[in-house]
Amino acid sequence: MAGTETFRNPIVTRAADPWVLRHTDGNYYFMHTQSGGLGLTKSSRLTGLAQGRKKIIWSPEPGGRYSYNLWAPEIHHLDGTWYIYFTANDGGGDESRRICVLENRAADPLEGEWVWKGALPTPVPGLDGTVVTVQDQLYFLYAGYGHFPDYGSAIYIMRMSNPWTLEGDHVLLTAPTLDWEKQGGMAINEGPVTLHRNGRIYLVYSASTTWSEDYALGMLTMEESADPMEPSSWTKSPVPVFRKSAENGVYATGHNSFTVSPDGEEDWIVYHALPAPGADAGLRATCIQRFTWKKDGTPDFGIPVSAGEDIASPSGE
Q: Which of 74, 181, 190, 317 is catalytic?
Protein backbone atom coordinates (compact mmCIF):
# COMPACT_ATOMS: atom_id res chain seq x y z
CA MET A 1 0.00 0.00 0.00
CA ALA A 2 1.46 3.36 -1.01
CA GLY A 3 2.52 5.77 1.68
CA THR A 4 0.50 8.90 2.43
CA GLU A 5 3.53 11.19 2.30
CA THR A 6 4.76 12.63 -0.98
CA PHE A 7 8.02 13.90 -2.47
CA ARG A 8 9.15 15.68 -5.61
CA ASN A 9 11.93 15.01 -8.08
CA PRO A 10 14.81 15.46 -8.24
CA ILE A 11 15.68 13.88 -4.91
CA VAL A 12 19.39 14.77 -5.18
CA THR A 13 20.62 17.72 -7.23
CA ARG A 14 23.87 17.64 -9.21
CA ALA A 15 24.12 13.87 -8.90
CA ALA A 16 24.78 12.10 -12.20
CA ASP A 17 25.06 8.34 -12.82
CA PRO A 18 23.05 7.34 -9.73
CA TRP A 19 23.41 3.88 -8.22
CA VAL A 20 21.17 2.71 -5.38
CA LEU A 21 21.46 -0.64 -3.58
CA ARG A 22 19.00 -1.69 -0.89
CA HIS A 23 20.85 -4.04 1.43
CA THR A 24 19.52 -6.74 3.75
CA ASP A 25 20.20 -4.39 6.69
CA GLY A 26 17.26 -2.28 5.46
CA ASN A 27 19.40 0.65 4.35
CA TYR A 28 19.85 2.20 0.93
CA TYR A 29 23.42 2.76 -0.25
CA PHE A 30 23.80 5.51 -2.84
CA MET A 31 26.68 6.48 -5.11
CA HIS A 32 27.00 8.92 -7.99
CA THR A 33 29.74 10.55 -10.02
CA GLN A 34 31.73 13.04 -7.94
CA SER A 35 34.96 14.86 -8.72
CA GLY A 36 38.09 13.87 -6.84
CA GLY A 37 36.90 10.77 -5.00
CA LEU A 38 34.23 8.19 -4.29
CA GLY A 39 31.43 9.11 -1.92
CA LEU A 40 28.95 6.74 -0.31
CA THR A 41 25.61 7.68 1.28
CA LYS A 42 23.64 5.50 3.70
CA SER A 43 19.93 6.18 4.22
CA SER A 44 17.01 4.33 5.77
CA ARG A 45 14.67 6.14 3.34
CA LEU A 46 14.81 6.01 -0.44
CA THR A 47 13.48 9.57 -0.62
CA GLY A 48 16.05 10.67 1.97
CA LEU A 49 19.24 10.06 0.00
CA ALA A 50 20.13 13.77 0.06
CA GLN A 51 19.98 13.77 3.88
CA GLY A 52 21.66 10.39 4.50
CA ARG A 53 24.97 9.76 6.22
CA LYS A 54 27.72 10.62 3.74
CA LYS A 55 31.38 9.66 3.63
CA ILE A 56 34.22 9.91 1.11
CA ILE A 57 35.31 6.30 1.24
CA TRP A 58 38.19 6.42 -1.23
CA SER A 59 40.42 9.04 -2.82
CA PRO A 60 42.90 8.21 -5.60
CA GLU A 61 46.62 8.90 -5.37
CA PRO A 62 47.46 12.29 -6.90
CA GLY A 63 48.54 12.02 -10.52
CA GLY A 64 48.03 8.26 -10.73
CA ARG A 65 47.07 6.20 -13.74
CA TYR A 66 43.53 5.80 -12.39
CA SER A 67 43.19 9.12 -10.58
CA TYR A 68 41.12 11.19 -13.01
CA ASN A 69 37.56 11.26 -14.33
CA LEU A 70 36.13 8.96 -11.69
CA TRP A 71 32.75 8.08 -13.15
CA ALA A 72 29.71 5.94 -12.44
CA PRO A 73 30.63 4.14 -9.18
CA GLU A 74 28.51 1.14 -8.21
CA ILE A 75 28.45 -0.71 -4.88
CA HIS A 76 27.65 -4.45 -4.84
CA HIS A 77 27.47 -7.05 -2.07
CA LEU A 78 28.82 -10.41 -3.27
CA ASP A 79 29.32 -13.49 -1.09
CA GLY A 80 29.27 -11.42 2.08
CA THR A 81 31.81 -8.84 0.85
CA TRP A 82 31.37 -5.31 -0.48
CA TYR A 83 32.76 -4.30 -3.88
CA ILE A 84 32.78 -1.01 -5.74
CA TYR A 85 33.26 -0.78 -9.51
CA PHE A 86 34.09 2.62 -11.01
CA THR A 87 35.57 4.13 -14.16
CA ALA A 88 38.83 6.11 -14.06
CA ASN A 89 41.72 7.17 -16.29
CA ASP A 90 44.99 9.08 -16.34
CA GLY A 91 43.47 12.37 -17.43
CA GLY A 92 43.67 11.51 -21.13
CA GLY A 93 41.03 10.35 -23.55
CA ASP A 94 38.80 7.33 -24.01
CA GLU A 95 41.73 5.03 -24.78
CA SER A 96 42.93 5.26 -21.17
CA ARG A 97 39.61 4.53 -19.42
CA ARG A 98 39.38 1.39 -17.31
CA ILE A 99 36.99 -0.06 -14.73
CA CYS A 100 38.56 -0.36 -11.28
CA VAL A 101 37.57 -2.54 -8.30
CA LEU A 102 37.67 -1.90 -4.53
CA GLU A 103 36.86 -4.41 -1.77
CA ASN A 104 35.66 -3.99 1.83
CA ARG A 105 35.06 -6.92 4.19
CA ALA A 106 33.37 -4.88 6.94
CA ALA A 107 29.69 -5.44 7.66
CA ASP A 108 29.01 -1.72 7.18
CA PRO A 109 30.54 -0.32 3.96
CA LEU A 110 30.98 3.09 5.62
CA GLU A 111 33.37 1.41 8.06
CA GLY A 112 36.39 -0.83 7.55
CA GLU A 113 38.99 -0.36 4.82
CA TRP A 114 38.44 -0.17 1.08
CA VAL A 115 41.23 -2.15 -0.58
CA TRP A 116 42.37 -1.64 -4.17
CA LYS A 117 41.88 -4.87 -6.15
CA GLY A 118 43.03 -3.51 -9.50
CA ALA A 119 41.90 -2.21 -12.88
CA LEU A 120 40.13 -4.86 -14.94
CA PRO A 121 42.06 -5.75 -18.14
CA THR A 122 39.11 -5.54 -20.52
CA PRO A 123 39.91 -6.33 -24.18
CA VAL A 124 39.13 -2.71 -25.14
CA PRO A 125 39.10 0.49 -23.05
CA GLY A 126 35.75 1.04 -21.42
CA LEU A 127 33.52 2.43 -18.71
CA ASP A 128 30.39 1.72 -16.68
CA GLY A 129 31.24 -1.72 -15.33
CA THR A 130 28.66 -3.79 -13.47
CA VAL A 131 28.20 -7.41 -12.41
CA VAL A 132 25.37 -9.93 -12.69
CA THR A 133 24.96 -13.50 -11.47
CA VAL A 134 23.23 -15.94 -13.82
CA GLN A 135 22.86 -19.61 -12.86
CA ASP A 136 25.48 -19.22 -10.10
CA GLN A 137 28.05 -17.79 -12.54
CA LEU A 138 29.31 -14.22 -12.09
CA TYR A 139 29.49 -12.07 -15.22
CA PHE A 140 30.91 -8.63 -15.95
CA LEU A 141 29.14 -6.13 -18.20
CA TYR A 142 30.75 -2.97 -19.50
CA ALA A 143 30.64 -0.36 -22.24
CA GLY A 144 33.66 -0.72 -24.53
CA TYR A 145 34.86 1.92 -26.99
CA GLY A 146 35.09 1.33 -30.73
CA HIS A 147 33.51 1.97 -34.13
CA PHE A 148 30.08 0.33 -34.71
CA PRO A 149 30.60 1.71 -37.43
CA ASP A 150 30.25 5.17 -35.89
CA TYR A 151 32.61 5.93 -33.00
CA GLY A 152 31.21 5.36 -29.53
CA SER A 153 30.60 2.48 -27.13
CA ALA A 154 28.82 -0.88 -27.08
CA ILE A 155 27.84 -3.30 -24.31
CA TYR A 156 30.02 -6.38 -23.79
CA ILE A 157 29.81 -9.33 -21.38
CA MET A 158 32.61 -11.45 -19.86
CA ARG A 159 32.86 -14.28 -17.36
CA MET A 160 34.45 -13.67 -13.96
CA SER A 161 36.26 -16.21 -11.79
CA ASN A 162 35.81 -13.88 -8.79
CA PRO A 163 34.59 -10.28 -8.33
CA TRP A 164 37.93 -8.78 -9.41
CA THR A 165 39.14 -11.27 -12.05
CA LEU A 166 37.97 -11.60 -15.65
CA GLU A 167 38.30 -14.79 -17.67
CA GLY A 168 38.09 -15.43 -21.40
CA ASP A 169 37.19 -12.91 -24.07
CA HIS A 170 34.27 -10.53 -24.18
CA VAL A 171 31.13 -10.93 -26.30
CA LEU A 172 29.25 -8.03 -27.90
CA LEU A 173 25.59 -7.90 -26.82
CA THR A 174 24.36 -4.58 -28.22
CA ALA A 175 25.90 -1.86 -30.38
CA PRO A 176 24.47 1.58 -31.20
CA THR A 177 23.08 0.96 -34.67
CA LEU A 178 19.65 2.64 -34.36
CA ASP A 179 19.07 6.36 -34.90
CA TRP A 180 17.87 6.98 -31.34
CA GLU A 181 21.14 5.49 -30.06
CA LYS A 182 23.26 8.00 -31.98
CA GLN A 183 22.02 11.42 -30.84
CA GLY A 184 24.35 14.15 -29.61
CA GLY A 185 27.37 13.45 -31.78
CA MET A 186 28.38 9.91 -30.75
CA ALA A 187 26.95 6.41 -31.07
CA ILE A 188 26.49 5.21 -27.50
CA ASN A 189 25.33 2.12 -25.62
CA GLU A 190 26.51 2.44 -21.99
CA GLY A 191 25.49 2.09 -18.34
CA PRO A 192 24.28 -1.54 -18.38
CA VAL A 193 22.15 -2.73 -15.46
CA THR A 194 20.05 -5.87 -15.06
CA LEU A 195 16.58 -6.57 -13.73
CA HIS A 196 15.46 -10.14 -12.92
CA ARG A 197 11.76 -10.98 -12.95
CA ASN A 198 9.18 -13.36 -14.35
CA GLY A 199 11.74 -15.92 -15.51
CA ARG A 200 13.62 -13.34 -17.56
CA ILE A 201 16.65 -11.08 -17.28
CA TYR A 202 16.26 -7.56 -18.62
CA LEU A 203 19.46 -5.73 -19.52
CA VAL A 204 18.69 -2.01 -19.53
CA TYR A 205 21.26 0.37 -20.99
CA SER A 206 21.62 4.06 -21.83
CA ALA A 207 21.83 5.23 -25.44
CA SER A 208 23.04 8.42 -27.17
CA THR A 209 25.23 10.99 -25.43
CA THR A 210 24.57 11.89 -21.81
CA TRP A 211 24.63 15.61 -22.70
CA SER A 212 21.95 15.17 -25.36
CA GLU A 213 18.31 15.76 -24.47
CA ASP A 214 17.65 12.44 -26.23
CA TYR A 215 19.69 10.32 -23.80
CA ALA A 216 17.32 7.37 -23.27
CA LEU A 217 17.07 3.79 -22.03
CA GLY A 218 17.10 0.74 -24.26
CA MET A 219 16.56 -2.88 -23.24
CA LEU A 220 17.62 -6.44 -24.08
CA THR A 221 15.56 -9.42 -22.88
CA MET A 222 16.75 -12.97 -22.16
CA GLU A 223 15.13 -16.06 -20.69
CA GLU A 224 16.98 -16.69 -17.42
CA SER A 225 17.68 -20.31 -18.45
CA ALA A 226 19.58 -19.19 -21.56
CA ASP A 227 23.32 -18.55 -21.96
CA PRO A 228 24.06 -14.82 -21.48
CA MET A 229 27.31 -15.22 -23.45
CA GLU A 230 25.32 -16.07 -26.59
CA PRO A 231 24.15 -12.88 -28.35
CA SER A 232 21.26 -14.84 -29.84
CA SER A 233 19.91 -15.34 -26.29
CA TRP A 234 19.06 -11.64 -26.16
CA THR A 235 16.24 -9.79 -27.92
CA LYS A 236 16.68 -6.04 -28.37
CA SER A 237 13.83 -3.57 -28.15
CA PRO A 238 13.73 -1.50 -31.36
CA VAL A 239 12.56 1.61 -29.47
CA PRO A 240 13.54 3.25 -26.17
CA VAL A 241 11.82 1.90 -23.07
CA PHE A 242 12.23 5.20 -21.15
CA ARG A 243 12.89 8.60 -22.67
CA LYS A 244 12.47 12.35 -22.24
CA SER A 245 9.10 14.03 -21.71
CA ALA A 246 9.00 17.55 -23.15
CA GLU A 247 5.48 17.91 -21.75
CA ASN A 248 6.76 17.25 -18.22
CA GLY A 249 10.00 19.18 -18.69
CA VAL A 250 12.31 16.22 -18.09
CA TYR A 251 15.16 15.54 -20.52
CA ALA A 252 18.23 13.29 -20.96
CA THR A 253 16.75 10.47 -18.86
CA GLY A 254 19.30 7.72 -18.38
CA HIS A 255 22.13 5.99 -16.55
CA ASN A 256 19.76 4.22 -14.23
CA SER A 257 19.65 1.63 -11.48
CA PHE A 258 16.79 -0.31 -9.89
CA THR A 259 15.69 -0.75 -6.30
CA VAL A 260 12.61 -1.59 -4.21
CA SER A 261 10.51 0.16 -1.59
CA PRO A 262 11.39 -0.42 2.10
CA ASP A 263 8.70 -3.11 2.40
CA GLY A 264 9.83 -4.77 -0.84
CA GLU A 265 6.39 -4.41 -2.42
CA GLU A 266 7.19 -1.80 -5.07
CA ASP A 267 9.78 -1.55 -7.85
CA TRP A 268 11.52 1.79 -8.37
CA ILE A 269 13.74 3.13 -11.12
CA VAL A 270 16.54 5.56 -10.26
CA TYR A 271 17.89 7.76 -13.07
CA HIS A 272 19.47 11.10 -13.81
CA ALA A 273 17.85 13.83 -15.90
CA LEU A 274 18.28 17.41 -17.10
CA PRO A 275 15.70 20.21 -16.65
CA ALA A 276 15.87 21.57 -20.21
CA PRO A 277 17.23 20.86 -23.71
CA GLY A 278 20.86 21.91 -23.91
CA ALA A 279 21.21 22.27 -20.13
CA ASP A 280 24.73 21.96 -18.74
CA ALA A 281 25.64 18.34 -17.95
CA GLY A 282 26.63 19.48 -14.46
CA LEU A 283 22.93 19.94 -13.73
CA ARG A 284 22.17 16.24 -14.08
CA ALA A 285 20.12 15.30 -11.04
CA THR A 286 18.94 12.04 -9.48
CA CYS A 287 15.25 11.22 -9.84
CA ILE A 288 13.21 8.22 -8.75
CA GLN A 289 9.78 6.88 -9.64
CA ARG A 290 7.80 3.70 -9.26
CA PHE A 291 7.37 1.36 -12.23
CA THR A 292 5.01 -1.51 -12.89
CA TRP A 293 4.80 -4.63 -15.06
CA LYS A 294 2.84 -5.33 -18.23
CA LYS A 295 0.63 -8.38 -18.70
CA ASP A 296 3.34 -10.02 -20.79
CA GLY A 297 5.76 -9.79 -17.85
CA THR A 298 7.92 -6.95 -19.21
CA PRO A 299 8.61 -3.79 -17.22
CA ASP A 300 6.60 -0.64 -17.86
CA PHE A 301 8.72 2.35 -16.88
CA GLY A 302 6.10 4.89 -17.96
CA ILE A 303 7.17 8.49 -18.64
CA PRO A 304 9.36 10.77 -16.48
CA VAL A 305 7.39 12.53 -13.76
CA SER A 306 7.43 16.33 -13.77
CA ALA A 307 9.63 18.08 -11.22
CA GLY A 308 6.56 19.94 -9.99
CA GLU A 309 4.44 16.87 -9.36
CA ASP A 310 3.83 15.33 -5.95
CA ILE A 311 4.71 11.62 -5.96
CA ALA A 312 3.51 9.13 -3.34
CA SER A 313 6.46 8.02 -1.20
CA PRO A 314 7.61 4.40 -1.46
CA SER A 315 5.47 1.96 0.50
CA GLY A 316 7.00 1.21 3.88
CA GLU A 317 8.36 4.71 4.40
A: 190
| Per-residue pLDDT reduced to its tens digit, 120-174 | 999 999 999 999 999 999 999 999 999 999 999 999 999 999 999 999 999 999 9
Q: Is position 223 annotated as part of the catalytic site?
A: no
Best CA proximity match to 163, nearest among 105, 219, 111, 225: 105
For 102-125, letters b (16+ CB in 10 Å) and e give: bbbeeeebbeeebeebebbebebb
First to last CA, the chain: 11
Query: 179: Cβ–Cβ under 8 A, 6 or more apart, which residues?
Result: none
Provide the pLDDT for residue 3: 44
Rounded distance, CA 103 to CA 81, Å? 7
Closest CA to 244 of 283, 301, 197, 294: 301
Task: Identify whether 190 is a catalytic site residue.
Answer: yes
In 3-state terms, what secondary structure has residue 42?
Answer: strand
DSSP state of 308: T
